[in-house]
């Protein structure tokens, strides 16, 4: 189980964290390499085959793992008991008994808590795929100074959602696209990564900080939050505040197709392999990073961890990003993966641009050197069970045709 490997690192990591604010719409995708398609091609778990799994007590959940998960679950209760569940599996009232009990439950009896209040469900065939994300720490400065030339921008005022004037009303469905208004009054796409790097936002006072290394800043944008180690040794936490509206492109795929990483090269098909190649080939690094036109805007954070998409800090080895159409926010999830470090109990507290479909997960590994290593190499298959409040599975079965 993963807790035995890094529980000491968790304690030291939490001791040095500081900073946060505001709920992002969705953090950017964590994976650097392309991901497999969803295993269930339906719109939500309510339309997937949901069946009862084994009892919670039969799962190999360690006491330490359950205790950490209980702490994370408590932080999710305000969301779970008030917000609509997009998966269609639960109602806010379903979570009320467990959340009420969690407020006073002993912090050392987490396993008993989950056995008492939850049952398991398998969504679809339960075949799961998991990646990892982490909170990078890179060098930065609150003010521009020699060697710190990479801007960390807040959300620009001219980044807005609107419909292009020439788009027929019949085609205006869902949310209007992000963009800006040009000199002719037309709504056009916002600036790309290349345009921003070439100065499209310069001189507007949007910088909240300056980073030292463009490659490190590129990957901090992919993770969606991070720590800036300031020249005086202090830390500034920054978190996702918005995005320029352009699609995310995982640069690992074109790099592998071009034979730059992978078999026959010194560079692994992993985040670290990509970083090593970019550093060894500075003349092409910018060109390849600009294949990802997405640009992330940040805000300074003041909590003790980066915020997930439900507005609570994500916790190392306890928080997992999910597709909320298939897993209720706040729900415990039990993973049994071929990378044993990811086995155990997680709490659904985040989402991401690449986290799509049933049983697709992105596990959070905190910050520090081991976090980067574990998250950067996490690409694991296995099985998943969603833990739902007791009584929900029977209700779902009665609602299924033929029951």
TrEMBL record:
Repeat among the record's keywords?
no
GO CC term, one of those recorded: outer membrane
Q: From which source organism is this entry?
A: Erythrobacter litoralis (strain HTCC2594)
Give the reactions, separated by semicolons, that this protein catalyses.
Exolytic cleavage of the (1->4)-beta-glycosidic linkage between N-acetylmuramic acid (MurNAc) and N-acetylglucosamine (GlcNAc) residues in peptidoglycan, from either the reducing or the non-reducing ends of the peptidoglycan chains, with concomitant formation of a 1,6-anhydrobond in the MurNAc residue
* PANTHER family documented for this protein: MEMBRANE-BOUND LYTIC MUREIN TRANSGLYCOSYLASE A
Q: Which UniProt keywords apply?
A: Cell wall biogenesis/degradation, Lyase, Signal
User: The Lytic transglycosylase MltA domain covers which part of the protein?
Assistant: 137-299
UniProt protein name:
peptidoglycan lytic exotransglycosylase
The family database entries (Pfam families) matched by this protein are listed as: 3D (PF06725), MltA (PF03562)
Question: Which molecular function terms from Gene Ontology are attached?
Answer: hydrolase activity, hydrolyzing O-glycosyl compounds; peptidoglycan lytic transglycosylase activity
| Keyword Cell membrane in record | no
**InterPro entries attached to this UniProt entry:** 3D_dom, MltA, MltA_B, RlpA-like_sf
In the record, biological process GO terms are: cell wall organization; peptidoglycan catabolic process; peptidoglycan turnover
**So what EC number does this one have?**
4.2.2.n1
Its signal peptide is: 1-18
């Amino acid at each position: 189980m993963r807790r035995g490997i890094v529980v000491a690192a968790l304690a030291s990591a939490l001791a040095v964290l500081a900073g946060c604010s505001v709920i992002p719409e969705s953090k950017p995708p964590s994976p650097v390499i392309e991901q497999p398609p969803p295993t269930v091609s339906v719109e939500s778990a309510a339309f997937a085959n949901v069946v009862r799994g084994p009892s919670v007590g039969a799962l190999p959940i360690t006491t330490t793992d359950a205790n950490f998960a209980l702490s994370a679950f408590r932080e999710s209760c305000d969301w779970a008991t008030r917000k609509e569940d997009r998966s269609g599996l639960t109602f806010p009232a379903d979570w009320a008994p467990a959340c009420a009990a969690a407020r006073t439950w002993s912090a050392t009896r987490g396993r008993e808590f989950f056995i008492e209040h939850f049952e398991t469900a398998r969504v679809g065939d339960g075949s799961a795929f998991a990646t990892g994300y982490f909170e990078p720490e890179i060098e930065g400065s609150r003010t521009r100074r020699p060697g710190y030339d990479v801007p960390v921008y807040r959300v620009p005022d001219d980044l807005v959602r609107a419909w292009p004037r020439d788009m027929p009303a019949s085609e205006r469905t869902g949310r209007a696209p992000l963009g800006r208004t040009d000199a002719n009054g037309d709504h056009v796409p916002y600036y790309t990564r290349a345009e921003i790097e070439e100065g499209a936002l310069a001189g507007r006072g949007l910088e909240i900080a300056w980073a030292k290394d463009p490659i490190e800043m590129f990957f901090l944008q992919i993770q969606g939050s991070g720590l800036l180690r300031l020249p005086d040794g202090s830390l500034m936490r920054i978190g996702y505040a918005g995005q320029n509206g352009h699609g995310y492109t995982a640069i690992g795929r074109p790099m592998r197709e071009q034979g730059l990483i992978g078999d026959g090269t010194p560079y692994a098909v992993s985040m670290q392999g990509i970083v090593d190649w970019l550093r060894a080939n500075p003349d092409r690094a910018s060109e390849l990073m600009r294949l990802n036109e997405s640009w992330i805007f940040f805000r300074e954070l003041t909590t003790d961890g980066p915020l997930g998409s439900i507005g609570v800090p994500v916790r190392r080895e306890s928080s997992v990003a999910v597709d909320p159409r298939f897993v209720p926010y706040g729900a415990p999830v039990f993973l049994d993966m071929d990378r044993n470090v990811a086995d155990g109990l997680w709490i659904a507290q985040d989402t991401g641009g690449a986290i799509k479909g049933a049983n697709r997960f992105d596990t959070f590994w905190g910050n520090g050197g081991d976090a980067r290593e574990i998250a950067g190499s996490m690409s694991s298959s296995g099985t998943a069970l969603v833990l739902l409040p007791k009584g929900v599975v029977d209700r779902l079965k009665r609602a299924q045709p033929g029951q």
